[in-house]
Design a protein that fits this description.
- Helix 1 packs antiparallel against helix 2.
- The protein contains 2 helices and no strands.
- It is 37% helix and 0% strand.
- The radius of gyration is 25 Å and the shape is elongated.
- The chain has a domain of 40 residues.
- By secondary structure, it is mainly α.
Amino acid sequence: MGAAVAAEPGGDAGADPYEAAGPAPLGVVRTPTGRPAVDALLDRLGDADHLTADGHLDVYEDVHRGLRAELTSLDEHPAPRPYDNRS
């Protein structure tokens, strides 16, 4: 079936040849949108800069939920004003 890969002489056959890099900021500049709630959510993406890759998902999902809620709120109609009888 499959051929076995021979280890290099003097090497450790079980060692991972790639060492994971630690968390590092990407340096992405976030331009303000003018909507404080959206800006706060986009700033939250910076939290992923200090996490290992396996922690990014929680941040991304949180921001995604918040952005969806903000978009949904744009479709909501304001509550009707109470009838004001001034006659």
